[in-house]
Amino acid sequence: MKFVHLAGASLLLFAATACSDRAITPTQPSLSVAQSAANFDQGGTSDRTVNMMDACDHASFAAQNPPILCTRNGGVAFNQLIGQLLDHGSAGAWHNAPSQMDARVGLTISAVNKGGEIHTFTKVAQFGGGVVPEINALLHLTARPECLAETNFVLPGGVDTDDVVQSGTTLYQCCIHPWMQTVVHGKS
User: Fold this and answer.
1) pTM for the model
2) Which of 6, 65, 75, 99 has the highest local Cβ count within 10 Å?
């Protein structure tokens, strides 16, 4: 259980201060989730949407010392999340949907946080570790430089957009929960 305490502390400290030695810019919800879904359809010629999902349980996340931000009621208890990471290297309820997509070059990708925790939608050269050292250690990952430089954190209900889809394959991951990944195949 010592790891759970350390992970909880790191997650909260990260979520609350996001590594206070650097500036962060939380992405405020500029559109409601319903508005963003209506504005960004999944068609091949329209901008594309990725939904960042989680199932955190407010009571068990808030019970960590220090507390971890979770705006949902019910769901997966914090200790169950750690157990899933230990058993599987991921937690299925924490995911990006879709995990893969085709998109025309020139479109914008919007990432909508439909969960209760803070997430990132970070473009990376390779999938790897995020900014929570205990999760990296648990999953045997090394922090990606893109994650270490990330300053844009998407609050629950928030929307983040990435510039334009480029030709070829582009990788995105959450720098807090690095198993949350999306692969975008840019097509002309």
Assistant:
1) 0.79
2) 75
